[in-house]
Design a protein that fits this description.
Layout lengths: L2 E5 L4 H12 L3 E6 L13 E4 L5 H10 L4 E4 L6 H6 L1 H22 L4 E6 L22 H20 L3 E6 L1 E3 L17 H9 L6 E4 L11 E2 L1 E3 H16 L5 E5 L5 E2 H12 L5 E4 L8 E2 L4 H7 L8 H12 L4
Parallel strand pairs: 1-2, 1-4, 2-3, 4-5, 5-6, 6-11, 7-10, 8-13, 9-14
Antiparallel strand pairs: 9-12
Length: 324
């Protein structure tokens, strides 16, 4: 039985990954400082409460157990905050990741799956975006992901530490059984914001711009169900265990949905209209961000199970109406 270390496993995507691993029969240890994650989001496994940037914590964890791989989800994720406070983002996302990679170099626990982001591409010059698209991040958050990917390539060349970077577009949805879901604080993602507005937990949603070159004038984004993301991580681990080379894959549906489509489906799912107000465009918001995930499908054999917006929003709604 393989044993895996999940860094940041109490967060949104990490907790769904833990669920996926447990369902597949793996042993799981989670390392999380609970600064953004929730201990009650774990559906099993062992929890070590600690900072993955603390070398002593890592040494103790690696010395106590033999891991067959590491999945790294711990990251600060707010683009706007990264612009206002880049020092915090470089310290957390880059410096702590370097500490993790250095510990892995010494302890050799197996390969690494890194939670990367479409933010490394910056302003798209074509759509859909494939892995060969120029990587020119336009904010510190995206730059931190870009730097870690570069470090991973260097650690493979120098030390043989193989890895896969998975570049998410827009993670969405929740466990279909509504046991776990999205619990960011503050929340910045469109689907939970819309659903929470319906429930009266927050003010009316702001729709930033209705004059884009899209069919309904609102921005188009690629939403991928969080369980489908978890499936891709498991396939990426298997790829590395079979000797696969260090590489990166885009993860997305390959079809975008507009802001207005999200509002329409959310309203239909809840049986009540999303309260919203129109607002001016936000600087730097491209009209379309859609993934070309053909490589993940061909190399990993990945097939999203919940590629439709209805399923994504239905699962998110079930979670929002039951969440703590």
């Amino acid at each position: 039985m393989k044993h895996l270390l999940v860094i940041g496993g109490c967060g949104y995507i990490g907790s769904h990954m833990v669920k996926c691993l447990l369902n597949a029969g793996y042993e799981v240890t989670v390392l999380d400082d609970l600064s953004a994650g929730h201990a009650d989001a774990l559906l099993g496994g062992e929890l070590i409460v600690g900072d993955f940037g603390d070398r002593a914590v890592l040494d103790k964890a690696f010395a106590a157990r033999r891991f067959d791989g590491v999945l790294h989800f711990a990251s600060l994720i707010q683009v706007g905050e990264s612009v206002a406070d880049p020092a915090r983002y470089y310290a957390s996302n880059v410096a702590k990741s370097l500490t993790l990679l250095s510990a892995m170099k010494d302890h050799k626990p197996g390969p690494l799956i890194f939670s990367s982001s479409a933010a490394i591409y910056g302003e798209p010059i074509r759509s859909p975006i494939d892995e060969a698209h120029p990587r020119q991040p336009i904010n510190p958050y995206g730059q931190t992901k870009h730097i870690v990917e570069a470090m991973l390539a260097d650690f493979d060349r120098a030390y043989g530490l193989r890895s896969v970077s998975l570049r998410y577009f827009n993670a969405a949805g929740a466990d279909p059984e509504a046991r776990i879901g999205e619990r960011h604080d503050p929340e910045t993602h469109l689907i939970p914001l819309a659903l929470q507005a319906i429930l009266g937990r927050r003010a009316a949603l702001k729709v930033f711009g209705r004059d884009y070159d899209t069919p309904d004038g609102t921005c188009i984004r690629d939403y991928i169900h969080v369980d489908d993301l978890a499936d891709a991580h498991l396939l990426a681990l298997d790829y590395l265990w079979r000797g696969g080379a260090t590489t990166a894959f885009n993860l997305g549906n390959g079809e975008g949905f507009s802001v207005q489509q999200v509002l329409d489906v959310a309203s239909a799912t809840a049986g009540k209209a999303v309260p919203y107000v129109d607002a001016p465009r936000r600087p730097g918001d491209p009209a379309r961000l859609v993934a070309d995930a053909a490589r993940a499908k061909s190399v990993l054999g990945w097939r999203p199970r919940y590629a439709d917006l209805d399923s994504i929003i239905r699962h998110a709604w079930q979670w929002e109406t039951r969440r703590p």
